[in-house]
Amino acid sequence: MSIQAFLDFGKSLQRNGKTFCEKASCNFLRKELPVRLANIIKEIHLLPESLICQPSTQIVQGWYEKSFAELITYEQADLTNDAIVSRFTQDLIKIRNRHNLVVETMAQGVVELSRGSEDKRIMVDSVTRDSIQYFLDRFYMMRISIRMLINQHTILFGGELPFSAGHVGTIDPECDIQLVVEDAFASARSLCENFYEQSPELKMTCINTVNREEPLKIVYVPSHLFHISFELFKNAMRATCEKGGASLSLPPIEVVIVKTTEDVAIKMSDQGGGIPQRNMPQLFEYMFSTAPSPVDAGTSVNVVPMAGYGYGLPLSRLYARYFHGDLQVYSIHGFGTDAVIYLKTLSESASEFLPVFNKSVMKQYSSTRTHGWSSSKFSHLVEWG
Ligand SMILES: N#Cc1c[nH]c2ncccc12
Fold first, then answer.
1. Name one GO cellular component term (predicted).
2. Catalytic positions, please?
3. Residue 156 burial (CB < 10 Å; 0-12/13-18/19+)?
4. How much is the pTM?
5. Of the residues 117, 147, 167, the one at which a domain ends
6. pLDDT tens across 266-292, in order?
């Protein structure tokens, strides 16, 4: 699906009526969702045994198998029966809620796997680490897509409130990029003030090369952009405050937003001291992100505001990539870091970027790790839709 397709379907309610559209949506989802769940379940079976056998991984696997079993009961259901269609919508809400803690629970599975060694990167061999990185990127991207499909249906037909008036499900046809980014900054700043008792200012520049006087708006999911921006601002503020110490004046976080006919780019620049180049690959590594500190040993995955990078960056990159955007982080050690969010300007170009499940995926779970620019590092890119 593209964002435009989601939008067109939502807008067709006025033309075709809610009942007709709910049945059409139900008919699509009762086929599409089991396919996406089945692909995830089959890929979980390809995981290293050392991760599959972990108690938390078993819990997640059980949630997916139960949800799949529930959805396929609708495969031949009579959708002319309003009660069945209504029950389907309620079951979707139940399934979505069942999966609310998948990220934390899967992260706990990774912690259970790597628990006990001082340096997580030694105890878990490189092939296992690569397999887990490859799997989790695909697994969480599919989860984002499944929740998007469910949310669109339950907001349009399940009586759940849209985020705001004028929205079509979770989509804002006129998403004001500047406002969402400013909102995320304010939320991160509040967290920063509570933690560091100080916070950097925001210096924002907006350039609309398409319509110079117009606000920078695109068709997008505001909650996705907020999630990404909030995470990046937290990291930038943490670096700025920790470098600045108790100094009275912190350097501002500078944001430049540019909209062209092709892309929207949102660059966030801080003077937080930057990241050594040797550490850059770890920014997006799930294994490194969940390397438990001593205080975490034996406990659940700690999510401490402003601490570590956690899963925030890898997940934020998936949200950006979900509608064919991206997230890149560039850093100059000793000075600061630029994080750039790229989004598609045209909703027709913003189609779901989903993992493809085929035989060559198997290779990724058994390929040996090569050093340097291994082809396998990018082979998964050919395994995405
Ligand atoms: N994302 C992000 C970051 C933005 N600034 C940073 N400084 C140190 C480490 C990570 C970051």
1. mitochondrial matrix
2. 227, 231, 234-235
3. buried
4. 0.90
5. 167
6. 999 999 999 999 999 999 999 876 544
